[in-house]
C-alpha cells in the first residue's frame, strides 16, 4: 500500500490509490501538497462522462477531522461561522472558518454523525492549518479533535447514473438508503462488502456520492466501483475535469475565489454566516462590520460573446478602466462558450452588464450573468 505520509517540501504526498492511477495511465500534478491525477486520457471525455453517465474521482487529498464530545456542537459553532448545532444527525452543512479579521481560512463540509460527533472535511492545502486552528479554538471545551487525514481515503462517484451504480454494490436492504438519501446527507453503508461512510455530496453540479473508507480498503473499493460502473459508462476522472465541472456549476475554489484576503460577503456566502446562533465565533465582530459596510467587490459570472476565454488573474474592464479580476475561467465543455467567475466592483454586477476581459493586451467582450452557468435536469 502506498504510504500516504510520504513526502517533503519538494516531494508531494501520495494517496493510497496512487498505484491504481499509475496503472490507468494517469498524468499527475501537485495539488495542495499531494500528487494527484490530473487526467487519465482526455479531460474533455472525463468531463462529459460525469455530465452524461458517471465519473470516479480520488479525493483522498481532502482532510478529515473528527470532532467528538459533549460540547462538539458548541465548539464548531465557536470555530465556524455557520450554525452546526442545528443540523440533524445524518445531515451535512457547508460552512467557513474565518480569521479574526473576517478573512476566509477555508471552506469545508461538516457531517453530523451523532449528537456529539462530527466529521469535518477541509480542503487539501488547508487541512493542517484548519487542524491547528481547531486545536487553538477548543480551549476550555469538552471536545476531542482527531486528525484522520493520513488514514482515510475519499472516493467520489459523480454523475446521473451514480445511484444506479452504487445500488448494485450495496446489500438489497440498503438499496433504499442509496435511492432515498437526500442531498447533503450521510450514513454508514456497506459497499462492495466494505464498511464506508456514504454521503450524497459532491463538487460537480451533478448527482453523486462520496465514500469515506480506511486506506487499507481503498484500492479494493476503487476497483469494485470501476468494474460496477463500466456498463453504465463510468470512467476515472482527474482534477482537470473536476475543475471544469465545478466552474460550470458556479462553485468557488479555495485559492481562486476564496482566500484570506476575501470575506464571505464578497463571494456570495454571506447567508451562511449565522449571527443568530447563541455562541460567539471567531471573526464575528469583523464580519458584522463588513456586513454593515457592504462589499467593495463581488463575485459574478461572466459569459464570453467571443471565442477566447478569460483566465485567472486577467483584468476585467469597463471601457478601458479596470474594475476587477477573473478568478477562474475557461471554455465550457458542456455549454460550448467561454465562462468565468470574476471579482468586480459592485456597481457593475447586475446581470446583463457588458464588460470586457483583457486577454494579454486584447480586449474581449463578456457579459455579467447569474450563476450557476449549468444546472442539471431534476
UniProtKB/TrEMBL annotation:
Which GO BP terms sit in this record? glycine decarboxylation via glycine cleavage system
At the top of the EC hierarchy, this enzyme's class is: transferase
The protein's UniProt keywords, in alphabetical order, are: Aminotransferase, Transferase
> Which positions does UniProt annotate for substrate binding?
210
Q: Which Pfam families match?
A: GCV_T, GCV_T_C
- State its Enzyme Commission number(s): 2.1.2.10
Q: Reply yes or no: does the keyword Hydrolase apply.
A: no
Mind telling me which GO cellular component terms the entry cites?
Answer: cytosol; glycine cleavage complex
Boundaries of every Aminomethyltransferase C-terminal domain copy: 297-374
InterPro entries (UniProt xref): GcvT (IPR006223), GcvT/YgfZ/DmdA (IPR028896), GcvT/YgfZ_C (IPR029043), GcvT_bac (IPR022903), GcvT_C (IPR013977), GCVT_N (IPR006222), TrmE/GcvT-like (IPR027266)
Q: Which reaction is this enzyme known to catalyze?
A: N(6)-[(R)-S(8)-aminomethyldihydrolipoyl]-L-lysyl-[protein] + (6S)-5,6,7,8-tetrahydrofolate = N(6)-[(R)-dihydrolipoyl]-L-lysyl-[protein] + (6R)-5,10-methylene-5,6,7,8-tetrahydrofolate + NH4(+)
- PANTHER family to which the protein is assigned, alphabetical: AMINOMETHYLTRANSFERASE, AMINOMETHYLTRANSFERASE, MITOCHONDRIAL
Q: How does it assemble?
A: The glycine cleavage system is composed of four proteins: P, T, L and H.
Name by which UniProt lists this protein:
Aminomethyltransferase
Q: Which gene encodes it?
A: gcvT
Amino acid at each position: 500500500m502506498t504510504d500516504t505520509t510520504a513526502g517533503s517540501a519538494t516531494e508531494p504526498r501520495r494517496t493510497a490509490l496512487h498505484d491504481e492511477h499509475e496503472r490507468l495511465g494517469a498524468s499527475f500534478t501537485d495539488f495542495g501538497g499531494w500528487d494527484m491525477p490530473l487526467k487519465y486520457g482526455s479531460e474533455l471525455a472525463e468531463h462529459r462522462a460525469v455530465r452524461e453517465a458517471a465519473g470516479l474521482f480520488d479525493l483522498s487529498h481532502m482532510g478529515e477531522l473528527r470532532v467528538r464530545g459533549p460540547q462538539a456542537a458548541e465548539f464548531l459553532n465557536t470555530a465556524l461561522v455557520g450554525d452546526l448545532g442545528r443540523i440533524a444527525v445524518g445531515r451535512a452543512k457547508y460552512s467557513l472558518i474565518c480569521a479574526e479579521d473576517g478573512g476566509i481560512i477555508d471552506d469545508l463540509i461538516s457531517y453530523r454523525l451523532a449528537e456529539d460527533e462530527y466529521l469535518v472535511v477541509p480542503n487539501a492545502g488547508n487541512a493542517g492549518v484548519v487542524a491547528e486552528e481547531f486545536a487553538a479554538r477548543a480551549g476550555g471545551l469538552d471536545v476531542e479533535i482527531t486528525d484522520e487525514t493520513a488514514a482515510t481515503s475519499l472516493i467520489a462517484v459523480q454523475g446521473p447514473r451514480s445511484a444506479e451504480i452504487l445500488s448494485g454494490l450495496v446489500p438489497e436492504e440498503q438499496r433504499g438508503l442509496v435511492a432515498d438519501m437526500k442531498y447533503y446527507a450521510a450514513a454508514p453503508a456497506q459497499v462492495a462488502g466494505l464498511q464506508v461512510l456514504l454521503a450524497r455530496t459532491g463538487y460537480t453540479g451533478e448527482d453523486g456520492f462520496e465514500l469515506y473508507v480506511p486506506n487499507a480498503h481503498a484500492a479494493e473499493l476503487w476497483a469494485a466501483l470501476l468494474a460496477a460502473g463500466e456498463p453504465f459508462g463510468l470512467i476515472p476522472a482527474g482534477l482537470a475535469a473536476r475543475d471544469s465541472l465545478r466552474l460550470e456549476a458556479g462553485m468557488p475554489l479555495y485559492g481562486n475565489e476564496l482566500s484570506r484576503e476575501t470575506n464571505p460577503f464578497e463571494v456570495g456566502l454571506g447567508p451562511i454566516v449565522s449571527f443568530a446562533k447563541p455562541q460567539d465565533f471567531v471573526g464575528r465582530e469583523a464580519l458584522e462590520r463588513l456586513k454593515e459596510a457592504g462589499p467593495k467587490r463581488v463575485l459574478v459570472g461572466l459569459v464570453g460573446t467571443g471565442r477566447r476565454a478569460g483566465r485567472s488573474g486577467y483584468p476585467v474592464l469597463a471601457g478601458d478602466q479596470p474594475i476587477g479580476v477573473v478568478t477562474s475561467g475557461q471554455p465550457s465543455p458542456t455549454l460550448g462558450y467561454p465562462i468565468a467567475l470574476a471579482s468586480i466592483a459592485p456597481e457593475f454586477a447586475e446581470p446583463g452588464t457588458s464588460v470586457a476581459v483583457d486577454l494579454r493586451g486584447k480586449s474581449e467582450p463578456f457579459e455579467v450573468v447569474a450563476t450557476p452557468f449549468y444546472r442539471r435536469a431534476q
